[in-house]
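[Meeting: bench + compute handoff]

Bench side (C.D.) handed over the final construct sequence. Compute side (W.E.) agreed to return the predicted structure before the next meeting so the bench team could plan truncations. Sequence as handed over:
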Amino acid sequence: MTRCAWVKLEEPLYVDYHDKEWGVPVYEDQLLFEMLCLEGAQAGLSWWTILQKREGYREAFDQFDATKIVHYTEEKLAELQQDTRIVRNKLKIASVVTNAKAFLRIQEQYGSFSDYIWEFVEHQPIINEWTSIAEVPATTVLSERMSKQLKKDGFKFVGSTICYSFMQAVGMVNDHTVDCCCRQEVDANDN
């Protein structure tokens, strides 16, 4: 079976993530929030690093329940900086609280974070036709626009590259290469 060239075939966790999650449209608010926070945590690191710590992140950050995260105290943030299950970067940890506050404001304003975020692609996944991973961009005009809007709305660690990676992860953009075994599956889910 051929998969996207970035997949570490010797790592079952990576294969599973690629085969079952990456590029599959996500509309559930809490999972979208989780993925946005995890993509932000990835800044300057590899996705493999974050993927291996994902369960630790879920435990450390109350399953990414924004209503709990907004009440984190300085003491809790200090504890998180000592938690080896996550990336212990002070700014990245603080950004989860900042993003939780922005996330709840967006939910209140738009009814759901999903409606807000999917509006960037007009509620329809963008299906690309890449023949190799070398063709896949790190940013696009759309990810730049999303980044600017998220920052304006109070989010942190949401640069254009992070936004594009987020869009790929949650299926707003289908960047499985045309020869990937998961390509047809994701296409079928989109219809």
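W.E. noted at the follow-up: The first strand starts at residue 126 and ends at 127. C.D. will use this when planning the next construct.
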